[in-house]
Amino acid sequence: SSNYRIAVIPGDGIGVEVMPEGLRALDAACKRFGIGLEYEYIEWASCAYYARHGQMMPDDWKAQLERCDAILFGAVGWPATVPDHISLWGSLLKFRREFDQYVNLRPARLFDGVPSPLAGRRAGDIDFWIVRENTEGEYSSVGGVMFEGTEREFVVQESIFTRHGSERVLKFAFDLAQRRARKTLTVATKSNGIAISMPWWDNCATRIAAQYPDVAWDKQHIDILCARFVLSPDRFDVVVATNLFGDILSDLGPACTGTIGLAPSANLDPERRFPSLFEPVHGSAPDIAGKNVANPIAMIWSAAMMLDFLGHGAGAERAAHDAILAAIEATLKQGPHTADLGGKASTTEIGRAIAERI
Amino acid sequence: SSNYRIAVIPGDGIGVEVMPEGLRALDAACKRFGIGLEYEYIEWASCAYYARHGQMMPDDWKAQLERCDAILFGAVGWPATVPDHISLWGSLLKFRREFDQYVNLRPARLFDGVPSPLAGRRAGDIDFWIVRENTEGEYSSVGGVMFEGTEREFVVQESIFTRHGSERVLKFAFDLAQRRARKTLTVATKSNGIAISMPWWDNCATRIAAQYPDVAWDKQHIDILCARFVLSPDRFDVVVATNLFGDILSDLGPACTGTIGLAPSANLDPERRFPSLFEPVHGSAPDIAGKNVANPIAMIWSAAMMLDFLGHGAGAERAAHDAILAAIEATLKQGPHTADLGGKASTTEIGRAIAERI
Ligand SMILES: CC(C)[C@H](C(=O)O)[C@@H](O)C(=O)O
Ligand SMILES: CC(C)[C@H](C(=O)O)[C@@H](O)C(=O)O
User: Which residue intervals define the domain Isopropylmalate dehydrogenase-like in the entry (chains A, B) (predicted)?
Assistant: First the structure.
């Protein structure tokens, strides 16, 4: 199998603590399946770096990362010293845009051993993917304030959706749905309230759907869709959404499966022109940082998704991915567990238990 | 007590079936507490009217409704014949805007006898209000498409938040929180992603909060806030949000309490320059329309909220509101139940049971 160069960015808070466990799992899996990884450790894209340099990243960040095949990312943000909009727009959101990682892929899955907040659901009942547009739409810094400081003050915020950007993420989602057993896609919308962009988005979906006659699809408004994540999460297979709606759904989905601390994410450039980025959904969690109690599973699962993407879903990389996932499942079922799952194990202990099982 | 003139608009689908039960409960409560109501029955603001007239409402709709003290509304929408954006923007959304009903108030409450999709929660555990801005923000028809039909096509959608519009709904929410036992307010935001309007909204909140030193408040990003509705709904007291976020939260909240079919809503002009509008959160539900199986409780509860608002939260109107609520609670606990709650009773039977208990 090939050799990959991985940029390793721990970032802030618990990012620093879970990253070593992600690497431990990677090392174990790559050793077993004969995959060569080379790590490039990066201390920037962190608030600690900002404190010393007044910016989140060095000027040549792009050149440095472009040399790598993928980016493994911990978490960024330390609001006590750097406002979120500076730390995020100065690192993570820049990566997503400038590396055109236009798909943010996140699973919602119910596991044995993980208490779900929903009543009466069992492992296997819930197993779907959220495909989020990751570069444009509602996340925009276009707009401004008028009549500032007066009674008449108002702010305009533009959401901007390109046909190119919308069609490609819809295609990715239809492709994914087509490869799955149920072949079912839900398109999140709000065309009954947001009068210009969302009917336009619905039209994009209808146009792309015509190319996938074997995929059963429908549109659901974001309000009732959120309700259905709680009421009938077993019905979903693949859900595709704009940037904001995808952000909401990909926190809500894992919350419904009790896995908000376990959920991984892949920020993908499916065309592989740029490195893709893999990160836990949980943030830097300042409240529990520095205590070695954070659950490293989201980080480890993200590392597994990275291998799978590097291997195009096949080969030794796929086998390594599956071995990591199996080790995660076994650990969730049999323990040890960190505090968030009612256990007493440390971050390191979970990382070791998973690596051993791999 | 005074006499009120009520515009009664059944609308479409199950709106037509639940409305008589709303009136039955009102009649019972008003008789008991000596309140005089006069109904003005209105057949427009329905897709049936649209089919005959090519518009949702007559030209003098505003004058007709302005003569009334409040509007009791069933549901609007029949997508098989009229697209949602026509039926909604041609009626309900017009009322909200042109009558400046800038607060949309919706409860999330757990009842005895209503199975919650959340595990281990009991009646009384969850009891909070969602205050939604109801006239501006993300629901806008400002924007447009450029380079249509080409590769470069994109759409711009503007969200527009006025200082006037934001401050007044925030004030309403702080006022409400101040009157409650826990005096706690959560402000929904997404200032880490939506870079212009949401930091501006946060500033509005901070400014208004300074006038309410006795209210404990914080900001929460909409993604994690949705997750917390599922994970720790007992923590919320009053939640305030922009139009879109409020729309999402006020479907999700009732979903978490198992009451999506029971939830009422009040579209309020708190300054009482225009009639306020009271409607169930559920829509016209074409799939179950015409079968006399819809649960009328959301309609009945909406009617109770109307009385309470007409009476400024006091007097005979308050007593009538409380009597209706008590009858709803007793019926939920002891039955009969409609199919959505696992029973066999018809819409009419539930309406009669509640009216008798009043
Ligand atoms: C029907 C739709 C336009 C409406 C809204 O989004 O406001 C509904 O979902 C509601 O919440 O009252
Ligand atoms: C931190 C924030 C900007 C980010 C987002 O909203 O995209 C996060 O919530 C996520 O989902 O990755």
Answer: 5-354
Q: Are residues A57 and A203 in the same domain?
A: no
Nearest to A326, CA basis, from A355, A293, A291:
A355
pLDDT at B2: 64
In this predicted model, what pLDDT tens digit does every residue of A244-285 receive, in sequence order?
999 999 999 999 998 888 999 999 999 999 999 999 999 999
Q: Are A112 and A259 in contact (CB under 8 A)?
A: no
Residue list, ligand 1 pocket, CB within 6 Å: A 192-193, 223; B 88, 247
Interface of B with A in 81-120 (CB under 8 A): 84-85, 88-89, 93, 115-120
- Cα(B193) to centroid(ligand 2), Å: 7
pLDDT at A52 over 90: yes
DSSP-derived 3-state class of residue A339: helix
- Shared-domain flag, residues A241 and A144: yes
Q: Do residues B204 and B222 share a domain?
A: yes
Q: Which residues of A touch B154 (CB under 8 A)?
A: 160-163
Q: What is the pLDDT of residues B166-225, one digit of tens each?
A: 999 999 999 999 999 999 999 999 998 999 999 999 999 999 999 999 999 999 999 999
Cis-peptide, bond into residue A296, ω within 30° of zero: no
Q: At which of B249, B265, B281 does a domain end? A: B265
Identity of residue B251: D
CA distances, A336 to each of A28, A29, A293, A296, A350 (Å): 18, 20, 12, 12, 6
Asked if B226 and A193 come within 8 Å (Cβ–Cβ), the reply is no
Q: A9 and A50, same structural domain?
A: yes
The pLDDT of residue A2: 64
Domain match, B239 and B282 both: no
Q: B172 with B124, same domain?
A: yes
Residues B95 and B130 grouped into a single domain: no
Range of the domain at A54: 1-101+269-358
- Based on the fold, state whether residues B183 and B68 are members of the same structural domain: no
Greatest Cα-to-Cα distance within chain B, rounded to the nearest angstrom: 67
Q: How many domains in chain A?
A: 2
Is residue A133 classed as helix, strand or coil in its secondary structure? strand
Q: Is A88 in the pocket of ligand 2 (CB under 6 A)?
A: yes
The ligand 2 atom at the shortest distance from the C-alpha of residue A243 is 7
A222-248 per-position pLDDT tens digit:
999 999 999 999 999 999 999 999 999
- The CATH number linked to B51 is 3.40.718.10
Of A163, A194, A230, the CB nearest to B255: A230
